[in-house]
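Checklist before submission:
- one chain only
- standard amino acids only
- sequence pasted in full

Submission:
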Amino acid sequence: MTKKAKNPMKDGSPMFVFGHDETGKPRGARFTDTLDSTATVCFNMGLKVVVSIPTEMTELVGKLPLVSVVR
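Returned file contents:
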């Protein structure tokens, strides 16, 4: 029997969002934890949502503004 892949959206990991605003300027943010509803809103806005960040990107994403999600 194989192990079921862990859903990163359920483990409280930080979420990173990347995209462009209406003028084409690059934008990004990091969220304190993942919520399916937050991810859905970001997807609907045409943004890229990343939960698992490669080690090489750790320094870069640390510079993104931190957004706290209110439940």
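Reviewer check: The mean pLDDT is 76.
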